[in-house]
Write a structure and sequence with these properties.
- It is a single chain.
- This protein is an alpha/beta fold and about 400 residues long.
- It folds into two domains: about 280 residues, Rossmann fold (3-Layer(aba) Sandwich), CATH 3.40.50.1110; about 35 residues, no CATH class.
- It has 14 helices and nine strands.
- The strands form three sheets. A five-stranded parallel beta sheet has the order 6-5-7-8-9, with helices on both faces. It has a two-stranded antiparallel sheet with strand order 1-2. Strands 3-4 form a two-stranded antiparallel ribbon.
- Strand 1 and strand 2 form a beta hairpin.
- Helix 11 crosses helix 13.
- It is elongated.
- It starts with 7 loop residues before the first helix and ends in a 10-residue tail after the last helix.
Length: about 400
């Protein structure tokens, strides 16, 4: 009579296989849940004036047409929709909406048709961050749009203004964006750079963009790192553990860095000043004019008690760097230590009437208009624009 014996190795391998399957399924499930949580927090769309009543929006936008601005705000998150672009790393993705339009070249419209770089007339290129792009306002309410309107009123209807503003761009990216246009044979008659806030928002050296971490993670797969390090870098579970242990940089939605001491503040100022000098040298060699605008920020020379609603310091986040940087900028400017050729200092500017900011840092339509009109005055009265046919 034969005994029915179970092979011990077969039982061992079956047990190990089952344990491995449970482990793989369990880890996979945790990664899916953690990945969903990470994406939910990282990709949470900014809610400009979220949960505000009609009366609140009326105060922020100085308007009675609240319904229109609710529609505008529903499209405003599109400013964060970006695509990879060589050398500058990203630019605003093309989009055709009702109040927010961006061409295939990454140029936001001014409310009167698609931007056409081949159009006749004087060309004014405007570079900057989200305040230049026009966060939370319509196409025809941005700084470049009001600049074009003001030039038309001043008899320079032939001038075309192009809005190259891109969320979180600082002076280095703007310089490179201009260089890419120039090497492609696209040259402005005047290049305007609206800077200040975003440079201090990115308080890290050497230069990096808001996309830097994203691209670094992607390229880790192509580097010859040990497999365990590559997997650890990709693990959503480990990212959540780091976040829960206090590492807020893992899931923080903002794209900047806090300045660590006066040395870093001075380094940001040096970067901004150096970029201005290099841009001016380019303009001198290639035959176009430049205007550098030192933009207003709510953390310098502005009484935030004028806001319809108070904004706490923590809501300003990395924008608080400008509270340290702007006084230092003003001090160095007064001492003649900064490049001031073609510099329009608007750090103390406020709109003559109405509210200035629709959120923590972005300008209201009235403020955009005030800035655009000041730039237009300088371009016209200073003879910066080339001669053209007035309309």
């Amino acid at each position: 009579m034969r005994r029915n014996r179970t092979n011990p190795f077969r039982r061992l391998f079956s047990t190990l296989g089952l344990l491995l399957l449970v482990l793989v399924v369990g880890i996979g499930g945790l990664e899916l849940v953690a990945g969903w949580a990470v994406k939910l927090i990282r990709d949470k769309r900014p809610a400009f004036a979220a949960q505000l009543s009609d009366a609140d929006l009326a105060k922020l936008y100085n308007t009675e047409d609240v319904g229109r601005y609710r529609k505008i705000l529903r499209e405003s998150w599109r400013q964060f929709d970006t695509v990879y672009t060589p050398f500058v790393e990203y630019r605003t993705a093309p989009y055709q909406g009702t109040h927010f339009t961006v061409s295939d070249d990454g140029i936001r419209g001014n409310g009167a048709g698609r931007p056409d770089l081949g159009a006749e007339g004087a060309k004014v290129f405007v570079f900057g961050g989200s305040t230049t792009l026009g966060a939370g306002v319509a196409d025809n309410e941005t700084i470049p749009a009001y600049l074009e309107q003001a030039l038309g009123t001043a008899g320079r209807g032939d001038a075309k203004v192009f809005n190259f503003g891109t969320v979180s761009y600082h002076s280095t990216q703007e310089r490179i964006a201009l260089e890419r246009l120039l090497t492609a044979g696209i040259k402005p008659d005047v290049a305007v750079f609206v800077d200040g806030d975003a440079d201090f928002y990115h308080c890290a050296m050497p230069d990096s963009s808001a996309w830097n971490e994203r691209l670094s993670q992607i390229t880790l797969a192509r580097s010859r790192l040990p497999l365990w390090r590559d997997l650890a870098a990709r693990s959503h579970v480990l990212q959540m553990i780091r976040h829960l242990s206090g590492d807020k940089s893992v899931l923080v939605r903002e794209w900047g860095q806090f300045c660590d001491g006066d040395a870093e503040v001075d380094a940001v100022i040096r970067r901004l000043d150096t970029n201005r000098r290099m841009i001016d040298a380019l303009a001198d060699r290639l035959g176009f004019k430049v205007l550098f605008v030192q933009q207003p920020v709510p953390t310098y020379a502005y009484d935030n008690r004028k806001r319809p609603f108070p904004v706490k310091e923590e809501a300003l986040g990395y924008h608080m760097n400008a509270a340290r940087g702007y006084p230092r900028l003003a001090e160095m400017k007064a001492a003649g230590q900064l490049w001031d050729k073609g510099l329009l200092w608007l750090a103390e500017l406020e709109p003559a009437e109405g509210n200035a900011y629709i959120d923590a840092v972005h300008y209201s339509p009235a403020f955009n208009k005030a800035i655009g009109e000041r730039i237009a005055t300088v371009l016209v009265e200073g003879g910066t624009l080339p001669a053209g046919n007035s309309r």
